[in-house]
Amino acid sequence: MTSDTLIPVRLDGQFRIKELLGTGSFANVYQTINIITNQSYAIKLELAMEGGSSVEREYYALKELVDIAGLPRLRWFGRESNFDALVINLLGPSLYQLLQQHQKFCVSTVAYLANQLVSHIEQIHSHGYVHGDIKPQNILMGLGDQCRTIFIVDFGLAQKYRHPTTRNHIPFRQVQCIRGTPAFSLIHSHLGSELGWRDDL
């Protein structure tokens, strides 16, 4: 989404857009405030498109993964002024930002974060989903009493890798483009292979 795209000032009559938090290939993330409760959240905006936007896909994925710890909580989803909008709880800095600030993590910190991350990914996989874009920018720390908890965000590329009834892995097939961020994609994605649970690890 380009920076000069005119975004709505208020959504659903209750969420007022504040400052830009981050940009992605498809959507931008802003801080928003609920003018009724005065609570701050994050809102993801993407121009709506035929066939569904990544924000819409993320909404449906998070609905099915709602009981998993370490994922953002859904607050609202809807369409306003040609935008698909997803409101989730506001989180803290990403691992990428923390690495930029501290340059490196000590071994105990790496082990602490890795233990949580693997646990979250395992739960996502147990629900039949593959995230498809695990990278430091998509791993955020919580705020307040959750400041030592990591959260996996950005499920716009998430997809089911198991048949919902048989629970069998989806069949192998070639795809036309790389899924996820090329710098962090595994060799299977670069070779044009369908992603499975292995590609989140």
UniProtKB/TrEMBL annotation:
<comment type="similarity">
    <text>Belongs to the protein kinase superfamily.</text>
</comment>
<dbReference type="InterPro" id="IPR017441">
    <property type="entry name" value="Protein_kinase_ATP_BS"/>
</dbReference>
<protein>
    <recommendedName>
        <fullName>non-specific serine/threonine protein kinase</fullName>
        <ecNumber>2.7.11.1</ecNumber>
    </recommendedName>
</protein>
<dbReference type="Pfam" id="PF00069">
    <property type="entry name" value="Pkinase"/>
</dbReference>
<keyword id="KW-0547">Nucleotide-binding</keyword>
<dbReference type="GO" id="GO:0005524">
    <property type="term" value="F:ATP binding"/>
</dbReference>
<keyword id="KW-0067">ATP-binding</keyword>
<feature type="domain" description="Protein kinase">
    <location>
        <begin position="15"/>
        <end position="201"/>
    </location>
</feature>
<keyword id="KW-0723">Serine/threonine-protein kinase</keyword>
<dbReference type="InterPro" id="IPR011009">
    <property type="entry name" value="Kinase-like_dom_sf"/>
</dbReference>
<dbReference type="InterPro" id="IPR008271">
    <property type="entry name" value="Ser/Thr_kinase_AS"/>
</dbReference>
<dbReference type="InterPro" id="IPR000719">
    <property type="entry name" value="Prot_kinase_dom"/>
</dbReference>
<dbReference type="GO" id="GO:0004674">
    <property type="term" value="F:protein serine/threonine kinase activity"/>
</dbReference>
<dbReference type="InterPro" id="IPR050235">
    <property type="entry name" value="CK1_Ser-Thr_kinase"/>
</dbReference>
<keyword id="KW-0808">Transferase</keyword>
<feature type="binding site">
    <location>
        <position position="44"/>
    </location>
    <ligand>
        <name>ATP</name>
    </ligand>
</feature>
<keyword id="KW-0418">Kinase</keyword>
